[in-house]
Amino acid sequence: MHSHHTGHTAHTVQSTPEDAGVLADVAALRPAGGPWRLSGPAGEPVVLPEALVELLTAAATGLAQGCAVTLTRHEQTVTTQEAADLLGVSRPTLVRLLDAGLLPYDQPARHRRLLLRDVLAFQATRHHDDQP
């Protein structure tokens, strides 16, 4: 499969119960903040970018809870269906959000495209609204 032909590829992992303690420890490191450092194969220090730290802690949290975790690679733009899936809404609901001007989009051709960062930013504001 040529990855440049597909919008995204997915990789799913699950952990063993024996790993749960270590995974929970990794997940718990996140609120402390500060940079994460790894050692490379030859012991060279590597400082992880914030995006990777966020990914690792999210994965560790899910795995520690006994869930399988899927990492999906997206293009920087997503289709309306992909955006709907990310937000956990139906495609018609997403289209209503677009029509209401709540989410920016581009329409270079027949199909609307959304920037992934816009979808994620919208998702973040919705999660804040859900808090009691």
Number of H/I helices: 5
Any idea what the shape is? Answer: elongated
Helix and strand element order = EHEEHEEHHEH
- SS strand fraction: 15-25%
Number of domains: 2
N- to C-terminal separation?
A: 45 Å
Unreliable segments (pLDDT under 50, ≥5 consecutive)?
A: 1-7
**Strand ordering within the main sheet:** 1-4
Question: Would you kindly provide a written description of the structure presented here, covering whatever features stand out?
Answer:
- The chain is α+β, with helices and mostly antiparallel strands and 132 residues long.
- It has 2 domains: 7-72, no CATH class; 75-130, Orthogonal Bundle (Multidrug-efflux Transporter Regulator, Chain: A, Domain 2).
- Helices cover 43% and strands 18% of the residues.
- It has 5 helices and 6 strands; from the N terminus they run βαββαββααβα.
